[in-house]
Amino acid sequence: MKFFLTLIILLLSICISAQDVLSSSTGTELASTDTISIMEELDALENLELPPLSIFLESIYDHPSIKIYEARRDEEKAILKETQLKWLNFFRATGTYQYGQVTGLTKTETDELMYAFSSRAQHQYNAGITVSIPFGDLIIQKQKNKAQKSRLDQIQYEYEISIEERKLKILEAYNLVVKELSTLKVKADAVALYNAQMKISEQDFINGKIDIISLSLERSRRTSAAVTYQEGKASLHNSITLLEMLTNIKVISR
Questions:
Q1: In terms of DSSP H, where are the helices of the chain?
Q2: pTM strictly above 0.70
Q3: Residue 157, C-beta contacts closer than 8 angstroms, at least 6 positions apart
Q4: Fewer CB in 10 Å around end: N or C, the chain?
Q5: For residue 15, what are the contacts with CB-CB under 8 A and spacing of at least 6?
Q6: Is 94 left (phi over 0), alpha (psi -120 to 50) or beta?
Q7: CA 134 to chain centre
Q8: Which residues of 182-203 are buried (b: 16+ CB within 10 A; e: fewer)?
């Protein structure tokens, strides 16, 4: 009976050891695959270069949110010009033209008294200017010009404020991309380092240099580093998308 119990315990020990070796081997292969993938992504990040900030700032003037202020400004300028020319309504130009035949009866004093009719063509021109200046309208006209200039100045101020606000948004988005990019490179290096350390720890576990608790802690660290790296990738993607939406400039090809 004791012999059979000893044999069963021995077989169970062999199975557990084989399972640990297989699990360690599988983990090593996964770690190797993850390391290769992350190193490729890291190389791609190293080659990723953002265009200069000035290019993104110049794109502000082509954005519809800015062009709408330019359209409103042009409209108000046209209204101001129309308002300033209304003083011409105080003047009226008049003119007449007539053409016709003029017929007259004339008397000649000769030996005999005679009457004769004469006819001739005649052109008549008449031109002039009349001036009518209502003083109330004249004063109101001055105030209208002043009010229109104020509206034009308000639009110009709104235009400049909008440009400054958009510049700040683009600057913040640009700096965020730079920050996320540099941080992601550090996170990728950390994942590659933990993967390499994981290989060493698994080999030490097989050789009996460390226990299962130490191996589990090492795996937990590698998993945490991998999760942090993936979160960094998502954050960088969101930052780049925001920058592209603000400027209509493609940063990366998808």
A1: 2-47, 53-58, 64-84, 135-206, 212-247
A2: no
A3: none
A4: N
A5: none
A6: beta
A7: 52
A8: eebbebbebbbebbeebeebbe
